[in-house]
Amino acid sequence: MRVLIANRGEIAVRIARACRRLGLSTVAIHTDADADAPHVRACDEAARVSSYLDIDEVVAQARRFGCALVHPGYGFLSERAPFAAALEAAGLQLVGPSAAVMERMGRKDAAREIAVAAGVPVVPTGAEAPFPVLVKAAAGGGGKGMRIVRSADEMDEAVAAAKREALSAFGDDTMLVEKYVERGRHIEVQVLADAHGHVVHLFERDCSTQRRHQKVLEEAPAPTITAEVRELVTSSAVALAAHVGYENAGTVEFLLDTAPSETGEAAVYFLEMNTRLQVEHPVTEAVVRVDGQPLDLVELQLRVAAGEPLPFTQDDVTVSGHAIEARVYAEDSFGGFLPQAGTASIVRWPAGQGIRVDHALEGGQVVSTSYDPMLGKVIAHGPDRESARDALVAALEETAVLGLTTNTGFLRTLVESEAFRDATIDTAWLDRVDVGTDVPAPEADVPRVMAAWVSAMITAFDAGHPFQADGFRLGGPPAPTLVELDRDVSVDRHAGTVDGVPFVMLSAEDHVIDAVVDGHRDHAVVNVQPDVVEVSYRGQRFVLTPPDRLADTAAAGDGVLLAPMPGTVLDVRVAEGQQVAEGDVLGMMEAMKMELTLKAPFAGTVTAVGAAAGHQVALGARLFVVEQEEAG
Questions:
Q1: What is the pLDDT of residue 232?
Q2: Which of 87, 319, 332, 352 has an alpha carbon 20 to 30 Å from 149's alpha carbon atom?
């Protein structure tokens, strides 16, 4: 049997791995830009498409290669009922629910009505929902097309922005308005159903650690919830799936309002059903056991799609230990969470007991803003939550991506935080609390010392050293971190000083340096290039450049607005010569489905407009110049 994988990146690699274990041959689809991507090399055959969203092309390639099954992964076409319908019309089997069920459950408005009919508690909507409310795309998911509205004055602008985002992401701008829970927990239940009337749950996950409705950390089982809440959400999820006639893997999501109700108990509301595999499925695989053995959800998906019954009942399902997953994104978390792009030069993923990494990123690979910014997932499993948390911190410290900035250092800081340690985070916590706008102080010093030492060592030992240039260059301008490297370094392969800091090098191999810095043992991944040094230390990337690197670049304080991320200019609202007031919107840009508004830093005259709507711009591109009004 042959399976076409209608996706890319880490999920396509993960599906291919399960297919190989089952003896199924695989066909990858790819665009021109992805012709040699890891997911293509992970499959037996490959088929070119002009777009991962082109239903006709994907179906035609599945028929051309004689595929019996099509696995959609997540994102892209995975929850598009027209895609499921097109496969059914072509006589092909989607690894997922039918088009009819997907149409009903894939829309939040229709799913709500079905939940009510199934006796599942739902969140108040429309007139029943007083401010604040949440405006969200009825056909959406993944946090796209959502806005919090706290007053009637904000409604029109919020709805317009959410509609724009939803139309771009899902091709449908229908909106749903519901009660916004200020202190909510996001609890979801993994369900599996076959074509023979069997539905089981694989317990719950907690996905409350979110930022702007995008999940950051996920874990299983959900900490601190009561046995009564667990029973309510798991039984409701099974009832909903059975009521709608669901088949294959799906996730039923609930919102737990932690604010006590009149009865003193937390309220639980149905949110939506994801009619596909979830990004966070590895934490369920890590903790769920059947007859003492772990499960492979993709393998079960494929077996159900092939018509096989589920090989176990609900009574066979147990939970062992705790698992936490961290999503590694191409974004600058300590710089406004802006999307990043570039060419990965050195990539190191962690390994070890209880550590799993799902990824499709390797050295030399181009990361663009054309796709979702998630690069991979690091999952840690332990006998209890605290051991899993400790293991994840250590794994994130070992994760190194150079060539572009990722959120790995931020993830480590977040997992170490008191709020996450005590499981007190709610869905809006990251939007209220500043975990840190700057890299923690001790972690800003060691990389500079490491970089200075390695640079001096390379100068002293011109060839044969473990930091030999690897030929890779940054895909875009370096991060604007100006650090002057000390060139007066006492160089010895084993001991010396950097700016008076005692330094003892223990070992160096393949860009990894292990040293004692000021009495503390540390290690880092270092890449020295002609005009920039990159260091990955405790998961965080540092870009160290000579002080004159950006000498001719104007700062925003001078009235020059630079592109803070690579992306597309959506809108330009001013022209040269136009008078603007402080805070006036000059334009908007977008990258990886994230919108950013560019505003005038002060009152003045627009003297330059550097891009037009629809233009692709690089990080640091000059977009607007505003000349400040003279005082008096």
A1: 96
A2: 332
